[in-house]
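Onboarding guide, step 5: your first structure request.
Type a short instruction followed by the sequence, for example:

Predict the 3D structure of this protein.
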Amino acid sequence: MTNMIERLTEVSRGRGRRRTQVPFVVAGTERPSGPSLRSKWAALPIALVLMCGLLLVSEVAAPDTKLVTASFPQAVSIYEGSDVVVMGVKIGKVASLEPKGDHVDAVIEYESDYKLPKDVKAAIVTPTLVADRFVQLTPAYTGGPALADGGEIPIERTAVPVELDRIYASLSELTTALGPNGANKNGALSDVLREGADALEGNGKIGNQAIADMSEAAQVLGGNSEQLFSTLSQLSEVTRTLARNDDTTEKFLTDLSTVSTQLAGESDELDQALVAIAQAVKVTKSFVENNRDALVGDVKELNKTLNILAKEKETLGTVLDLAPLGIGNLAESFDARSGSVGFRLQVGPIGSDLSNILCMVVENDQIPGAKEICALFKALLPAGSTAPAGQALTEGSAPTDRDTETGLPLDTGTQAEQPEVEPEVVTQGGISELTGSLQELMSGGKR
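The system replies with structure tokens like these:
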């Protein structure tokens, strides 16, 4: 299309430069011929075609544009056609403004050659008091997701300048509040300024140092802004938690107040208790200082005992499980009438030889002269000697009748006949021999 238009332009220019050759005649003797007039009318369509081509070229060459809608709280001094800039470079204009409830939607038209970040912000800027306002888009695109054509900038990402009349109104309110009809009605503000001037007179160096210290403190706070805001957020969360548990907090404070009142009413008793505790601590301190070595030894022995108990925890567990049953059975076996305990001790097969049992006890305890003692046991308790055992009810024998209330056996008037056992007679010589053997063992054996 462009080539065709260029060719039409060249043809038009060539025809424009062509001159009509008129034969040399004497003036007034011959009129212009007909072909010259027809050539002028023939150039008119060519000119029209040329103009249409130029318009088409300008339309085709026009750059494409994109649209974005920004929502502002207000759009004072912003009109259709106001400039839209990025870092001072104009990239578009405001296409239209449409009020919607509590905000104004500004449709911004900008060149498609420019990209905007997805989180772009918009602000209405007032360069001077008299200059026209414009819309500033920030930040400039440097990479990452881009804002799509027809995107939106919500009101949370827009800003508008403070109006001058609002500033004047604020200053007027301030001066009125501090003026003779306000805080300075009785000269209070003047007194404050006077006292401040007197206090600062001659202390300029100190004031300068104070300002410098405050600046450093502000820098420290600025450098730790994340921690500071985190602390404030946590305090806010604590406050919200207390607010959610207002009833519980109020009850806690009431109880705390009651306890404080009660403690205040018993201050004398508390003083006496604290004095007694102080005396007890003093006595304990003296006792520990005077018996330090003994306490250290006791602690060591206690540690050994605890270690033994820790090693025998399974045995202790068994004892604790079976001891209540054994004690209960022992109580049941006691005969209150005869004053005896009727039970049978089950020693098992190890009770068939008492001398070996006693020898094992002596050897395990590593008693001096264990061999001589074992020989003595074997002499006194020959093989086959058994441990005495209680007698149990034999099959077919009747159990003892007991009182249903007291649990004591009833006196039936009859007793089972017990076989008479003749006591073993120990001769004088045997006693002397046993005594001599024991003396030798206690003294370490024969010498």
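Each response can be followed by summary notes, for example: The first strand starts at residue 65 and ends at 72.
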